[in-house]
Amino acid sequence: MVGEFKDKGVVVKTTDYKDADKIITLLTRNHGLISAFALGARRQNSKKSPHLDLISQVDIQIRGKEYQYIDQASTVSSFTNIKADLKKISLCMSFFEILTQLTAPGVEDPEIYQSLLVFLNQIEKAKSQAQQNQTASRFAKYLLRHMGYPERPPQNIASVSSYFENLMNRKLISKEIV
């Protein structure tokens, strides 16, 4: 990886690390799926912490070669309507889990990044459960097609989430997708 870079990304996973730090996993436009340390992000007075929430689009500056560190972060979109609805949160977390499992780290794929943003914006604006399900179904079909998997699950797999579980060889921790 490059020594220092700036990019836009969506926070798809956070993991507490030691007493005051976090490991942030982002799907970025120009660097693909990356994980970086956010030093001090768990402290109450952290300037980075509010910008590194799950389901947030951020501008980031990262440094480091062997280990990467987030130097700066600023929120582009916080998707407040998603964060106010548990069903929308669950839906997004399911797709984030799928993306972190099936996307190769560090491989640039601006198409998946852009499609994820479209998905998040549509879920943000969705008024009904039917709209959310339709958006999720379209995004799931896109991911399958883009990653080279058959679009139609085999007949013995009932739901899209179980099809993704089959591809990942493990159960989704997040709730059912559709």
Can you summarize this structure?
Residues 4-79 form the DNA replication/recombination mediator RecO N-terminal domain. With 178 residues, the protein is an alpha+beta fold.
Describe the structure.
The chain has 178 residues and is of the alpha+beta class. It has two domains: 4-77, OB fold (Dihydrolipoamide Acetyltransferase, E2P) (Beta Barrel); 80-168, no CATH class. It is 36% helix and 25% strand. The chain has a five-stranded antiparallel sheet. The longest helix has 18 residues, at 129-146. The termini are far apart.
Query: Counting H and I runs of at least 4 residues, what is the number of helices?
Result: 5
How many strands?
A: 5
Q: Write down the overall mean pLDDT.
A: 90
Main sheet: strand order: 3-2-1-4-5
Oligomer: single chain
Helicity, as a percent range: 25-40%
**Shape category:** globular
Give me the strand/helix succession. Answer: EEEEEHHHHH
Low-confidence stretches: none
Overall SS class: alpha+beta
Strand content: 25-35%
Instruction: Report the radius of gyration as a whole number of Å.
Output: 16 Å
Q: Give a short account of the largest sheet.
A: 5 strands, antiparallel
* Total separate domains: 2
* Cα-to-Cα separation, first versus last residue: 36 Å
InterPro entries: DNA_rep/recomb_RecO_N (IPR022572), NA-bd_OB-fold (IPR012340), RecO (IPR003717)
Protein name: DNA repair protein RecO
Domain DNA replication/recombination mediator RecO N-terminal: 4-79
Organism: Candidatus Collierbacteria bacterium RIFOXYD1_FULL_40_9
